[in-house]
# Entry
Amino acid sequence: MNYLGIDWGEKRIGLAFADEIGIALPLPAAVAASKKARMQHIEAMIQARHIDELVVGYPLNMDGSVGFKAREVDAFIAELEKRFRLPTHRIDERLSSHSVEQGLKGQKKKPSRQSGEIDSRAAALILQDFVEERNLRLM
# Structure
């Protein structure tokens, strides 16, 4: 089973990959200027990595409620499901980007926000959470 982790943003979409080994790795983010080009980038990753399922970070509010950003992600997920017809999972992503930024500070690294590196590392955290949770359920 191959998974594509996705950290959605209006300008950048972080991407990560995991397979049956269960280690999520960041991929190049979809950072093109147009939405169409970002979706084409995702499609290329799905084809190149033979993706079976999508795992999308779901930005719940800190109290666990569904807010404005989560509704935007719902619209994005609907578009993914219509276009790619793959099973899609929503995973709580609260503080994933913040965790990545804190980790990079500890390593004294400061990647450009525009590069999408932070977004793809956040996608890897989200995907890793999903894979670990799924593996626990299968035990």
Notes: DSSP finds four helices and five strands in the chain.
